TrEMBL record:
Top-level taxonomy: Bacteria, Bacillati, Bacillota, Bacilli, Bacillales
Top EC class, one word: lyase
Binding-site residues for substrate, renumbered to this chain: 13-14, 168, 195
Binding annotation for Mn(2+): 14, 195, 197
EC annotation from Swiss-Prot or TrEMBL: 4.1.3.39
Ranges where the Pyruvate carboxyltransferase domain occurs: 5-256
A Pfam cross-reference name: DmpG_comm
Entry protein name: 4-hydroxy-2-oxovalerate aldolase
Organism: Cohnella herbarum
Length: 334
């Protein structure tokens, strides 16, 4: 009997990082139609950092959250509409309630891997509004399994119906994924999932390692379109799962056709650059790729030096201001 795996596709969210949040209404509309035809279970949409994150500091979205969600809602019937929510960027009263009123089905409430406390109000509110809600622990490579379990249990107690562990820096190797997944799956009463990045070329291998230890939810994007060196490539992942005895409900033929169309229209296929490799080695948030490239050029620095320094300082998502601080410090040392 084939084992079911729930696939969530953040192409229209994580991929937004790769193009400075410049997705157009036409691109969003076309992609959601193709996702529906390929029977992708969940499509996540929004600014790369999630609902309410469009700003001068993080990059302004070309299309507002409201318009993105309305366009997706129009086209998604069987495919569920998902959003990524980081408390602090997204308020309950303004952002979250508006998204729920538009018809969001799945809400992922995220925090840094040691700060689950900040998700309590958002998770509890989503449950009162009768939405499917998951807790997300970002930059999970920075905490040992025991800490991840403690933080995940907090989210479970708030009402989260599943926990997603993000490899936000693309820093994991398969053995580390196995160790943490095994610990989480055996300690929680709710499903566990994994979100991979490909900075070290391990996104598919790490995703497979996760399900071998009991994960039942995987994230993947079309052509790997995402921050840094991109995510686990959706078409490859579905093919591998099909070959190894897992059922996703996704029509592989339609998915392959859709991936070609998406590449022709808006997806920039990510590559593993020198900077991406260093980013993974240093454990730096993949979403920093574009600002690091820009600031390194501005100060005539090697982006690799900036990544290693950010890694030493254990900088996390949301601390984008420190990229500039590091660049200034390095330039003064020359």
């Amino acid at each position: 009997m084939m084992r079911p795996i729930l696939i969530s596709d953040p192409t229209l969210r994580d991929g937004s990082h790769a193009i400075h949040h410049r997705l157009t209404v036409e691109q969003i509309s076309a992609y959601t139609r193709m996702a529906e035809e390929a029977s992708i279970p969940i499509v996540e949409v929004g600014h790369g950092n999630g609902l309410g994150a469009s700003s001068l500091q993080l990059g302004e979205s070309l299309v507002s959250d409201k318009q993105m969600l309305e366009v997706c809602r129009e086209h998604l019937k069987r495919t569920k509409l998902g959003i990524h929510v980081i408390p602090g960027f997204a308020t309950i009263k303004k952002d979250l309630n508006n998204a729920i009123d538009i018809g969001v089905d799945v809400i992922r409430v995220a925090s840094h891997c040691t700060e689950a406390d900040v998700t309590q109000r958002h998770i509890e509110h989503c449950r009162t509004r009768e939405r499917e809600v998951y807790g997300v622990l970002m930059m999970s490579h920075m905490a040992p399994a025991s800490i991840l379990i403690a933080e995940a249990k907090k989210m479970q107690s708030y009402g989260a119906q599943g926990i997603i562990i993000m490899d936000s820096a693309g820093a994991y190797l398969p053995e580390e994924v196995k160790e943490k997944m095994k610990a989480l799956v055996s300690s929680l009463d709710i499903p566990v999932g994994f979100h991979a990045h490909n900075n070290l070329g391990m996104a598919i291998a790490n995703s497979v390692a996760a399900i071998e230890e009991g994960a039942t939810i995987l994230d993947a994007t079309m052509k790997g379109f995402g921050a840094g060196a991109g995510n686990a490539q959706l078409e490859v992942l579905i093919a591998v799962l099909q070959l190894t005895g897992y059922e996703t409900g996704i029509d592989l033929y339609r998915l392959l056709d859709a991936s070609d169309v998406a590449e022709q229209n808006f997806i920039t296929v990510p590559t593993i650059s020198s900077s991406s490799i260093v980013s993974g080695m240093a454990g730096v948030f993949s979403g920093f790729a574009k600002p690091v490239e820009r600031i390194a050029k501005q100060y005539n620095l090697d982006p690799k030096d900036i990544y290693f320094e950010l890694g030493k300082r254990k900088v996390v998502a949301g601390q984008e201001d420190l990229i500039l601080e590091v660049a200034v410090s390095l330039s003064q040392l020359r």
